[in-house]
Amino acid sequence: MSPAQPMNLVVFLARAGVGSRRSCDELIREGVVTVNDEVVTFPRHKVSHDDVVAVRGERVTVRELRYVLVNKPRGVASTRSDPHADKVIVDLVPGGRALFPVGRLDVDTTGLIILTNDGVLANRLMHPRYGVPKTYVARVRGKVSRRALGTLRQGVDLEDGRTAPADVRLRKQSAKTALVEITIHEGRKRQVRRMFQSVGLPVEELSRRRYGPLSDKGLEPGGYRELAGDEVEALRRAGEQVAGEVAKETEGSPVPLAAEAPEARRERLAEDERAGAPEMPAAPSAEPDAAAGESGAPDAGAGRSGEPDTAGDGSA
Ligand code: URA
To answer: Which residue, among 216, 205, 188, has the nearest Cα to 72 in the 3D structure?
Structure first.
């Protein structure tokens, strides 16, 4: 959202990097926030860019927000700085050093990553609670059995817990390798690689092709583009929509996020068969790939800078 549009005072403060929405709400109610020298204690008081907003007498301003979609090539670290990497993702975009990557991709993973200075949206997208879907295409070594596909779909036991239901499709089986598309709603460290490894299918190449409503269409590795306003809104809605589903789930009995209708399931199983997935399972390896990759917690930062302030999202 551009600062030119009127917005709630609490949103203005959060966007200015004063803190989380909750802490900004408290500041306003405490009576330490002024708009044009008048104390305002109503968090939803509307302000626009030409209002003078101050916290304890100190003026705060909202920066122009940027949202850039990057198709990360192999070998580039998805952090802001990395002494071991040849290149970091923020250097692929002019002015990128003022932006933060939303989540992480391993150095050897290619694909979509968002850079932004909107800490509020970044936190929402990265927070495991919001479960924004991320679609990857993996080239794996070996024959992909229907059992392996089923296990990946239902959830696999990793050392940091069972994975949530995923949408998994076998795209192509060749003599030695296969292409598998997987959509997950979590973002644990090296999650996709570990999931495949746990069913005996080591990942040789991995690429993130979709992130929530965004796809890599027309964006070559190394390319980037600014997101349009409607794309940013779609991202916001994606977070909110899934958050709603999760809230419902946690109130009652758990409903898998990726639960499938029986008809869709039948169709998908037929697709597995057409794609050549053998019925017999490939021998699963009990050893998940525990080797740490590049994907650590995101840059944890204080809300003041507007950078993300949760450390929930590992790889994705
Ligand atoms: N899962 C992985 O294993 N690696 C990534 O880079 C992203 C998701």
So the answer is: 216
